[in-house]
Design a protein that fits this description.
single chain, alpha/beta, Rossmann fold, 2 domains, six-stranded parallel beta sheet, 23% strand, elongated, binds NADP nicotinamide-adenine-dinucleotide phosphate
Length: 255
Amino acid sequence: MRLSPATPCRILILGGTSEAMELAAHLSGNREFGVISSLAGRTAQPRLPAGEVRIGSFGGVQGLIDFLSANAIDLVVDASHPFAARISSNAAKACQLSNVTLLVLERPQWSPVAGDRWYEVQDMGSAASLSAELGRRLFLTVGRQDLAQFAAFPRVWFLIRSIEMPDPPLPLQHEILLRRGPFDPREEMTLLQEHRIDVLVSKNSGGSATYSKIVAARELGIPVVLVKRPLQPVACCVSSTSDVLAWISNFKSTR
Ligand code: NAP
């Protein structure tokens, strides 16, 4: 059915990223759209997107299907983090089963440049064993939920940076830094030097907000153990917020 141009296009943004915040800021004041942003509720004091926000799990694929139907959603924009694989998989299944259009915003990965000393690994377990072989003073910037694998290395010292207190089990020897990006390259270099870091461990998150640590490691010749992204479901995909906005404008005009 072709809807009247006056009917708002109902959009669900799967968030938890700066791109999702940008999209909500652009779309929420526009009467052509009815936007709901969704956060998982992992952080106690999240930065809230503009406009309507819901917080908490949907309850798996069926829960998301029910939500799409109850809120008459026309389009889901999956702007979740590249390592949030479960919600992306759920979104792909729920959209297919509900016949709702899905657009994935996948920010480009970081790629090595001259001077980078990267060791790319498939998962966090491999990152833990390789980094413990390579160094004795590790800077862990992988979030707070993936630290258990590093607890198996009692002789290694860890500087753990996360937005909120990390979940146990934690490595025996560690210091915790509670910080939220974006970070400055000069300050990242100072941090690495002050703590005599000899290996950086990171996910290949992409984006600019946390790239400074990669620059700092390059400048100081420090190796980086980089966890590759999980596979994403096949879906219509763009790589920037401006691409999403252009795509949505076209979607609205052709409905
Ligand atoms: P995940 O493993 O893909 O998802 C686990 C479960 O959490 C999902 O099955 C879903 O529960 C719920 N969930 C995840 N994202 C949600 C959202 N935006 N709205 C409602 N429910 C959501 O996700 P994760 O890696 O734990 O990440 C959680 C959130 O943090 C995401 O929004 C992501 O964008 C953000 N984030 C993640 C990372 C990272 O490195 N993983 C980094 C920065 C930000 P149900 O199945 O019950 O619906």
